[in-house]
Amino acid sequence: MSKSDYFAAQLEKLRQKEQYRRFPQIVHKGKFVEQNGRSMLNLASNDYLGLANDDALQQAFLEKLAEKRPHFTSSSSRLLTGNFPEYETLEQRMAEAFQREACLLFNSGYHANIGILPAVANKQTLIVADKLVHASIIDGIRLSDAPFVRYRHNDYAHLHEILQKQHLNYECIIVVTESLFSMDGDFADLPQLVEFKRQFGNVMLYVDEAHGIGVYGEQGLGVAEQMNCLPYIDFLVGTFGKALASMGAYVVCDQVIKDYLINTMRPLIFSTALPPFNVAWTEFLFEKRPHFQAKRQHLMQLSARLRHIVAEKLNMPMPSESHIVPFILGNNQRTVQTAQRLQQQGYYCLPIRPPTVPVGTSRIRLSLTADITHDELEQFIEQLFLCNIN
């Protein structure tokens, strides 16, 4: 069998399992997307605060830059000729906002997660990760070549058992979790992790805030702010491409860790840096973040309503704790068909299937944004259960 025939056969297997993927052909129109002439309310976006669709914000940003517009490309790694003032301004302001020593920018959350752990971990480091951490974190763990184990999702008795057994066997243990899990919509118990760090002196904490930054906390600094854990997390990683409507990622950390990453982190050293224009837009939105509290409160109200009705209608425990509400159907085909019916009714919902989620837990990931109205949510809820195929 030729390689082309092998690839074709593997793709056919994916089709038979309802796991074949393709890029959607869509046009964005504010909080709606258009596909094949059909306009649909977007319930699959990570634009949690609705900032990406805010024309007034974009206009204010462009007016601010009228006299001096940043470069549209860095043309280089930051270690060569690509270190523009915009990067250092944003890093300084973020470090000040988080009340930490330092912040370091990356091109994406994937770059951060595949680069930090390989840079800081070695054979004398044990990485202990939640079972449901993002694929990018798993890739980073594998690239680190450090020994690792995974604890059952949010099972802190299991994690404590591992730490108790292993903490004397390694120079350092790095506990890795997401603050808000992107598929189940539930939170890590960050105060409990901080307590483990106090109990075991060689534990460091790595927390991915990709889905929490901008959405949680009085100042919009994320779940770690809301849980009063900001000073205690060694690697506080987050992204700008979701609630903050931009592109890129960051780690908030001690200065010595930032300096070490600059000297050892391969995806940082060998990548062309983000366009300064993009970083200026990120800084513009980050500075406005404290003023989005009304958007955060509205999003929480929408989320609570959807979670309650899903639990009530399906006679099940509350499906999540956040603005990410999984509608778990289990079967791949049923999930795909339900998503298609919702799209026909004007709601852009997408099926999430293995390997993104465990086998048997295929779902429609309902992702709410602050620009959805209460009336729009009620209309969607009515269709959600009408379109659910038994």
Q: Would you tell me the overall average pLDDT?
A: 94
- SS-derived structural category: alpha/beta
- Kindly report how far apart the N and C termini lie: 40 Å
The number of distinct helices, counting runs of at least 4 residues, comes to 14
Shape label? globular
Instruction: Give unreliable regions as ranges.
Output: none
CA radius of gyration: 22 Å
Number of strands: 14
Strand portion: 15-25%
Strand order across the largest sheet: 4-10-9-8-7-5-6
What characteristics describe this protein?
seven-stranded mixed beta sheet; 14 strands; alpha/beta; four-stranded mixed beta sheet; about 40% helix; about 400 residues; globular; 14 helices
Helix and strand topology:
Elements (H helix, E strand, L loop, with lengths): L2 H14 L10 E3 L2 E4 L2 E5 L12 H10 L20 H14 L3 E5 L2 H12 L4 E6 L4 H10 L3 E4 L4 H11 L5 E7 L11 H10 L3 E6 L14 H4 L8 E5 L9 E5 L1 H10 L1 H4 L6 H13 L4 H22 L9 E7 L1 H13 L2 E2 L2 E2 L9 E6 L6 H13 L4
Parallel strand pairs: 3-12, 5-6, 5-7, 7-8, 8-9
Antiparallel strand pairs: 1-2, 2-3, 4-10, 9-10, 11-14, 13-14
Provide a descriptive summary of the structure in words.
This protein is an alpha/beta fold. The protein has 14 helices and 14 strands. It has a seven-stranded mixed sheet, with helices on both faces. It has a four-stranded mixed sheet with strand order 1-2-3-12. Helix 3 packs parallel to helix 11, helix 4 runs parallel beside helix 5 and helix 12 runs parallel beside helix 14. The longest helix is centred in the last third of the chain and has 22 residues. The chain is globular. The model has no long low-confidence stretch (mean pLDDT 94).
